[in-house]
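Researcher: Let's do a round of design. I'm pasting the structure tokens now; please hold your answer until I've finished.
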């Protein structure tokens, strides 16, 4: 027993007592779930009604991410946190909890637990979210809280979707996707609305086109619109971010600059500094020498051309610096020799 500032007595329970209370609560919930089992057909009907309530609600039920470029590009899509919330509320006789269990200054770890009380089946899983920016600087406290909430939401979704079988909700997911694509608005209006949404997020048209690998607004079809809606949800949920999706950290070009400076002889070895043409085909060799014919804007060849030009600029810069160092070294050496001659005389 302890006393508060007002003189009131307060009882502090031991961990064993708290565990016993928690266990008794779960036992009561399981007993209640067994007494009032869910009716599967009613559950599915309710989930379908809520998820297809309108086009906006249906669109919020999915997320989408794009990974890779060109032929290696892959779209990762799935059910969002919003759909998991609808599913859990309609499923009934279910217990879902999330906790932040770790923060090491680099990442936050959230744990989600879902327990189907009627089936007495539980699943737990962890989600990690980085709390450093591209410069490896730790987020502010407020941003760490936001990131923790996003990690908890994702942990919630993952736990719920692992407990409730996907086979049961597959037909509902297909119907919801059809509603999300929508037919109420014409394609032109939908494109404009999508552009407005991402503009408000700070994404420029150039960045959006580069991400979708398109050249004009007319190339955005229904599939791409559905992807953009899913991407918007992924950014809102914290699955990804604007920076990560549209402005990924570019790796620095790897330049072989093993220029050997021999101070004694004043010679340099630039064997490894000059890129070998053995690894480039004919077209790439033409690019290297400044020929840009037959290169489509935004194509892989254009990207290679830019990388090779950057490589050439870096090489020329390194070469100039090395030449300057050699001139300075030779000048010092000459002065030393002249001084030696005068001293001798």
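Researcher: That's everything. Go ahead.
Model: Designed sequence:
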């Amino acid at each position: 027993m302890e006393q508060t500032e007002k003189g009131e007595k307060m009882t502090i329970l031991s961990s064993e007592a708290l565990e016993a209370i928690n266990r008794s609560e779960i036992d009561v919930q399981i007993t209640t779930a067994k007494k009032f089992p869910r009716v599967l057909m009613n559950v599915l009907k309710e989930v379908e009604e809520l998820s297809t309530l309108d086009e906006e609600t249906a669109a919020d039920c999915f997320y989408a991410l794009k990974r890779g470029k060109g032929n290696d590009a892959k779209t990762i899509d799935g059910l969002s946190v919003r759909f998991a919330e609808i599913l859990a509320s309609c499923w009934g006789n279910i217990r879902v909890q999330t906790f932040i269990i770790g923060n090491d200054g680099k990442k936050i770890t959230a744990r989600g637990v879902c327990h189907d009380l009627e089936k007495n089946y539980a699943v737990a899983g962890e989600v990690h979210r980085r709390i450093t920016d591209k410069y490896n600087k730790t987020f502010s406290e407020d941003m760490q809280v936001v990131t923790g909430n996003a990690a908890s939401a994702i942990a919630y979704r993952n736990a719920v979707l692992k407990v409730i079988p996907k086979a049961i909700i597959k037909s509902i997911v297909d119907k919801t996707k059809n509603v999300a694509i929508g037919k109420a608005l014409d394609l032109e209006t939908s494109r404009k609305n999508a552009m407005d949404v991402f503009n408000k997020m700070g994404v420029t048209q150039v960045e959006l086109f580069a991400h979708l690998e398109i050249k004009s607004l007319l190339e955005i079809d229904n599939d791409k619109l559905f992807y953009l809606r899913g991407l918007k949800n992924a950014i809102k949920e914290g699955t990804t971010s604007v920076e990560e999706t549209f402005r990924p950290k570019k790796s620095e070009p790897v330049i072989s600059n093993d220029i050997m400076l021999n101070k004694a002889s004043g010679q340099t070895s630039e064997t490894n500094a000059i890129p070998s043409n053995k690894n480039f085909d004919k077209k790439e060799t033409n690019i290297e020498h400044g020929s840009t014919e037959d290169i489509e804007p935004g194509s892989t060849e254009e990207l290679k051309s830019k990388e090779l030009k950057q490589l050439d600029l870096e090489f020329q810069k390194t070469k100039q610096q090395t030449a300057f160092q050699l001139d300075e070294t030779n000048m010092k050496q000459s002065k030393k020799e002249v001084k030696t001659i005068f001293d001798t005389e």
